[in-house]
Amino acid sequence: MTSPTAPRDPIADHMLTAQNAALLIIDFQPVQVASIASMNKRLLVANVVAVARTAKLYGVPAVLTTVNVTSGRNQPMLSPITDVLSGVPIVDRTSINAWEDDDFAAAVKATGRKKLIMVALWTEVCLVFPALDALQEGFDVYVVVDAVGGTSKEAHRAGLQRIIQAGGIPISWIQLACELQRDWNRESTTAGFADIVFAEVGH
User: Which of 30, 61, 133, 192 could form a disulfide with 99 if both were Cys (CB 3.0 to 4.6 A apart)?
Assistant: First the structure.
């Protein structure tokens, strides 16, 4: 029972690694969370915070964006997320589709990563639109299905189906954490990994 002596190339790996992926968090703001009807709101927030903690643990670059904060029409991103990812700039925009905001698209491309882990509210709008555009531009899109939500179960499901039909890949947040950890012998992140995962699913 041995681990591989030479880990796979973390950049060329077909699976997600800390070196080939970036995390995009889109529009996790109070109004959007309050309107979610596809899953329990507290669980949704807990799951997206776990995604943020996972990205921080493994050093996955994150791009955060909000809509209409500067205009005064909306409130800032949820503090449990920004507390975890403190220091990460937030791109505020007016476009419903984040990919149509030049600053956001530039920030994503500046990470140099082609695999994009995406969470957004709502599934059927602010997740679908940039996911489709990113896929069209040749990015691989991974949607964390239990850390996104829609205005109804039907809308959420239809949004995910549209992304998958276009080539997007559904994952869960625990799958994401396990895929980045990959081996219990990677001791620099083992304790943090266990803390994030077992805090939610139990020992």
Answer: 133
